[in-house]
Design brief:
FAD/NAD(P)-binding domain, 2 domains, 30% helix, single chain, 508 residues, 5-stranded parallel sheet, alpha/beta, globular, 14 helices
Length: 508
Amino acid sequence: MPGRVVPFVMADADFDVLIVGAGLSGIGAAYHLGQRCPGKTYAILEAREASGGTWDLFRYPGIRSDSDMHTLGYNFKPWEEQKAIADGPNILKYVRETAAENGIDAHIRYQNKVVAASWDSDQALWTVEVEVEGQAQKQKLTCRVLHMCSGYYKYEAGYTPEFEGREAYKGTFIHPQHWPEDLDYTGKTVLVIGSGATAMTIVPAMAETAGHVTMLQRSPTYVVSRPAEDKWANRLRRILPGKLAYGLTRWRNVLFQLFFFNMARKRPEKVKDRIVGMVKEELGPDYDVEKHFVPKYNPWDQRLCLVPDSDLFNAIKEERASVVTDHIDRFTEKGILLKSGETLEADIIVSATGLDLQFLGGMDVYVDGRKIEPKEHINYKGCMISDVPNLVTVFGYTNASWTLRADLTSEFMCRLVNLLDRENYVEARPVAEGVEADEDFLDFSSGYVQRAVDRFPKRGTKQPWVLNQNYAKDILLMRHGALEDGVLVFRRAHEAQLQTEPEMVAAE
């Protein structure tokens, strides 16, 4: 199609990089940027009034990591607490310490919610629209590279199904994402709906003081217990320098995770028998483990639940907690009527029914005036999107700690920033020409993932469009792999744009 050459005009940017989100990923990204791209200007835009992301938002009883902190911690800052399965307040302290120690706090703009971002190829700039608390008009900021560290779920509200008769219930009904600070459950009868990591954290924590806590699940989840303290790591830290001890522990745990995941994929029945066998050892021969703790799917088709020091199993054995596997028929004035005809009465019902997933913090994205529909695009190296230039986004592993991939993604972003600078490039755009796509962005059967499939880009079937669930492979791909790989297409500042006839008409 005929066209004309449009000269490129380099425009000034407010920042070299804008980071969206001041949680675990965003603080880590700022550290990597400061270390690897000295002199580059940046700001962190945080929608809430405080840093910490997930670890500041969630306040439910027992809130903790579901991964060990030697892998959930940053690759540059050793975790030095005794407990490897850490509670939320200690993780929040760790994140905020990182920000304070490295001068990152000064770059955070709180109550700045990003609602849209527009890429202009003529100027090679992102324009980011921000709703600022207390200001009537949106603010606009520009940057060369946009780095999304906004997590993967809506902070405004979690997922709650439409329960029949919900309005009839006269007790207290809450979702863990918005836990009331003044909730007193001492001596109360509590019913927790759900069987994921949140439910299995809340149940033993509330059972310490509640009258009784029941976990109501539609179907079981694989549950594994491990010590809250990593004695090997604590011993190693006493005899070796901190960073060396941390690095050795981190790699030991990473390799074990990879081994266990690969075993689950190659020999699922053997892994299933081992997990179920451990639960039977915990609960004894008289407990119906098959009904309550044996899922119909294979291990790692959904994420395993980790319980520290057998706290859930201990609560069950001591009859402070119990598990019911059944389906909800409807809510009643005093509780829930099950499909089996049994009624569960409760003073408090906790709907631990999952997260409501979203992509890129829910913001609208435009490239040269065209709105981007994520489901029509393909994920590049798990951190960029086909046909969307200069945007890098963090999405963690499903089978390992989130931060392992977050660190690698931010390192990749820094490599990209430096290459653009060094080669006088202004644009890096993944081009998915002829790429076969898979409908699901994750090979994961969890309900909260399947509900949101249409909100995320697809994944490809070949590198670099697949989503590796393998930290070792991603080190080679993202830390050491070629950036100029023929798929990521670059444009220099002096190279002109070719404008086609329809674009010319639109411009005129």
